Structures are given as C-alpha cells and as structure tokens.
Amino acid sequence: MSKIAVVFGATGLIGRELVSQLIDNEEYHKVLIFNRRSQNYENSKIEELIIGEQYFESISGNVIADELYCCIGTTMKKAGSKAAFQKVDYEIPVWLAKTAEKNGINKLLIVSSVGANPKSKNFYLSTKGKMEQEVLKYNIPEIYFFRPSMLLGQRDESRFSEMMGQKAMKLTGFLMKGPLKKYKAIPAPVVAQAMQKVAKKDYSRHFFESDELWKIAKS
Fold first, then answer.
1. What does DSSP say about strands 67-70 and 107-111: parallel, antiparallel, or unpaired?
2. What is the per-residue pLDDT across 44-71, written as a single tens digit (0 to 9) for each?
3. Complete DSSP assignment for 44-101
4. Domains identified in the chain and CATH numbers
C-alpha cells in the first residue's frame, strides 16, 4: 500500500513527531506538509507548501490525501485574544473538515484536548468541544479526535509555565489512577504513534482519551 498523508501543524510537538514517524513508515510514499515558514526538510517523501495568513480557500485544492492529520493548536497567551485563539483551534480544524469532505478524504485525525466539552465554562475547553461538535457534522467516513493531557517534550519556543507544569506532572504521575488516569502527562511521540495506529483501523467511535493513547501506541 502506498498512501499520502497531509499534516497541518507539523512544527508543533505532536506534528514534528508525527512527520518523523510517517516518513519512516513504508506505507506512505508522500507526506504533504502545510507550513507558514519553510522548515527546509531534506527527506524525499516530504512535500512542503508555504501558506500565508489568508489561505483557506486558496489552497483547498491542494489538500489531497488518504489521511488528513490536524495537529494545530495554540494557547490563549500565545494567541493574544479569544478571537485569535478561536481562529486557530476552531476555525482551522473546521475548515479542514469542510475541505476533507469536498476532496473525498476518507480519514480525518485531529488533536483536541483532555476535558474538551462544548458546555465547559473554560473558554479553551469549550472551544475544543465546539470544534469537535462542528467537525462531526461533515460527511467524512472516519473522523477521530485525540484528547491528550499535558504533553511531554521539547518545544521550539520557551513556555515557562508549561515547562514547570511538565515537571510537576512527572512528579505526580503515579497519583493519576482510576478516573484521574486520563490526566497523566503523555509524551508527544506516544500521541503521534497512537494516531498512526488508529488510522490503520476502522474504529466505530470518534474519541480517544489520553490514557487510551498509551495503550494504542503500545499495541
């Protein structure tokens, strides 16, 4: 089998790991990546398209693949406003769902968040939940949401509060049992591996919690 994967958010923690794993996987002959700035990839499997701020409709015809991975995500602090955050974490995934339906892509895999809930009083979590709700309205054969807890890994940019959170989660991870196990911090490579494994199967459900990702990655 020779497949094409499209990746949005390839410069983030999960996205970087996912691209690395995809190019090492013999099942894929091309990994199409959409970035705002060139990453100067040297692998022959990678095709990189540079996109500007206003790219939605102008590039929809280029989003052709067997599998579409959305690893895009930001923080309220980095976004600077609720509107800017919503554009990244809601509008882009929804646009990708619209594009996937239009272009006949069979599998859409999206990184969401632990605790995503459209009714949450937390803006971050409610935005993620509303995004999931809206994406599911599109006629795509397989839609999967991955809800990782705090990610472990080295980011390109420094996030002091997140770095301290990672350290705290590592120290208290052993306490995350029972109902709390889905809140245990998870390494980005584990999430990426779980996404690939889910893509290989036809699951009858849409959501995968953080603790499930560990099991899937190891299976």
1. parallel
2. 999 999 987 656 678 889 999 999 999 9
3. TTEEEEE--SS-HHHHGGG---SEEEE-----HHHH-SHHHHHIIIIIHHHHHHHHHH
4. 3-218 (3.40.50.720)
Specify whether the CB–CB gap between 21 and 196 falls below 8 A.
yes
List pLDDT tens digits, range 134-187.
Answer: 999 999 999 999 999 999 976 555 554 445 444 444 444 455 555 666 788 999
The single-letter code of the amino acid at 154 is: Q
* Both structure tokens of 4: 């094409």
Residues ≥6 apart with Cβ < 8 Å to 13: 151, 153, 154, 155, 188
Selection from 55, 63, 67 nearest residue 140 by Cα: 67
DSSP state for residue 60 in the 8-state scheme? G
b/e code 126-157 from CB counts within 10 Å (16+ = b): bbbbbbbebbeebebebbbbbbbbbbbbeeee
Residue type, 168: A
Question: Does this model's pTM top 0.85?
Answer: yes
Which residues are bridge partners to 32 per DSSP?
6, 47
